[in-house]
Amino acid sequence: MNMNEFLRTWRGTQAENRWMRIFTLILILANVMLVVQANQQRAIVVLQPPTLSDEARINPNGASAEYMNAWGMYLAMLLGNANPGNTGLIKEVVEPMLAPSIYQLVLNAIDTQVDGLREERASLSFSPRQIEYETESGKVFVTGVSSIHGPSGEPRTRNVVYEFKLGIRNYRPYLEDIDMYKGRPRTLQVLRQEQGKEGATS
Question: Does residue 32 sit in helix, strand or coil?
Fold first, then answer.
């Protein structure tokens, strides 16, 4: 049968219309599925701040290691370079990021630290040496040298680690925990090794 002649008949026209309706329905369903999928997918923002050598990615509930490292470095420099004159600034920056569970503890610790510096007429400085982000725990470890500068004598220095447990909520960083201690970063690997040694000695 010649296809061109068939399509010129009424039966051919009906068959063509039937197939057109089926294809149109398939296209409509495909478009509906695309719209639903597009609405469910949250945007990923790509940043390249001047403090980063590589671009950083952030979505509503997470971010790349580069982004977390940048925030960890910023917070370590902010908290590690304290003096009685910049307490207000430190609180202003840190306060909106604090999780409710540590909110009052951190603000009290800042006040206590600054009161001690005021009594000694001293200031605190921090020089970072290494930064590490641990994906499994969501922690940033900033290792460096902390120095207390008083009105007389040489500065007192010590190696310290700033440990920040950072999260992302609606594209904004928030702090679940802050710690500062001497020694090496307490990564999960280090903690497991220490637990293994304790188990071996007991």
Answer: helix
Got the DSSP string for the chain? --HHHHHHSHHHHHHHHHHHHHHHHHHHHHHHHHHHHHHHSPP-EEE--TT-SS-EEEETTEE-HHHHHHHHHHHHHHHHS--TTSHHHHHHHHGGGB-TTTHHHHHHHHHHHHHHHHHHT-EEEEEEEEEEEETTTTEEEEEEEEEEE-SSSPPEEEEEEEEEEEEEETTEEEEEEEEEEESS---HHHHHHHHHHHHHH-
Residue 6 reports pLDDT greater than 70: no
Task: Tell me the whole-structure pTM to 2 decimals.
Answer: 0.72
For residue range 41-82, list pLDDT tens digits in order: 555 555 555 456 667 787 778 888 888 998 999 999 999 998
Q: Whole-angstrom Cα distance, residue 180 to residue 159?
A: 10
State the pLDDT at residue 3: 57
Backbone φ/ψ region at 121: left (φ over 0), alpha (ψ -120 to 50), beta: left
Q: What is the pLDDT of residue 13?
A: 67
Q: What are phi and psi of 101, to 5 degrees?
A: -65, -25
Evaluate whether 174 touches 99 at the Cβ level (below 8 Å): yes
